[in-house]
Design goal:
The protein has 330 residues and is mainly beta. It has a domain of 196 residues: Trypsin-like serine proteases (Thrombin, subunit H, Beta Barrel), CATH 2.40.10. It is 10% helix and 42% strand. The strands form three sheets. The protein has an eight-stranded antiparallel beta sheet with strand order 8-7-11-12-14-10-9-24. Strands 17-19-20-23-22-21 form a six-stranded antiparallel barrel. It has a two-stranded parallel ribbon with strand order 6-15. The chain starts with a helix and ends with a strand. It comes from Dyella tabacisoli. This is Serine protease.
Length: 330
Amino acid sequence: MDIPEELIQAKAQVEFGLLALPGVVGIGLGAREENGEFSDELAVRILVEDASRVPDGLPSEIAGVAVCIIERVYEPVAFPDVDRYPELRGGIRIESQARGFGTMGALVMDTATGEILGLSNFHVTGPVGTQIWQSKTPNLIASVPPILDDLVGDVLRVDFPDTPPLPLSPIRVSTTDSGVFRTNGAAAQGRGVSRAISGQGLGFPDLIPAVTATAEPAIFQTVRKRGFMTGPTNGSILGAQVVGKWMTINWSPGGGNTYLVEQVEIFGNGGVFVDGGDSGSLVLDGVGSTALGLLYGASRGGAFAPAGHFGMMSLIANVEARLGVSTVWA
């Protein structure tokens, strides 16, 4: 499904005005969705908190493309888990004392220095300087040095909605919720690093041995991910698939005037695609080792779909550019 450039520009011109309407939480482009069913008709997808209370002022079309109204809200997904991996790899649990638990999507390479870093969401890692642990933080007691067995390293760079789209605008936007952290703490404890993405867990084959390419996803492309809470998921027989692109959604950690732009919406066809603890997972194409995006959030339960049947990700090209890293390295 091709999305015309003029439609992308038309959406960009009106989206923040529409998002200011009460109950509107997202707007994007992709497959028409009605009563939980998808068609191959291109539509403007407007997400609302409550489909029974749609605000006045929503258009019926933008640039000649019909609007569909969808009841759906996305939230960050971070939750505890317990496994410890002697060799770091993508898809495993990390913990930040500042933010809690989530998934390290992959080991990536700093394009300036060649240093190997861990990748996750900013809402998982916390700010620069925060210590990241795998699998858990130690009990911190005043005047007692912490045990460093599980220390991975400190957060090095982060990106999140903190830039106004126009001068003096109260709105803050970004294309990612992401962060990278050093792995020198793990190395000091004799732990190695791997390009692999974990599979079913310790002692089982990896999902992939390494990320070999990156790409921009297409509408209806099948995808998969490995998150700490749900493991490898790709939906049902038909597979999880991309159903929306160029999404702009409210970034709930920042409040009402913060937005993630250029997001991609994923439908886990027939089952849960994402659950608490999966934030930071790397999203791959359905059959190969190509990275497409960084998972940010999951849908709340709502009309026609239980919680977690939909996920939201940032484009991997934007993540790499904002953080100065490469997901493909040797």
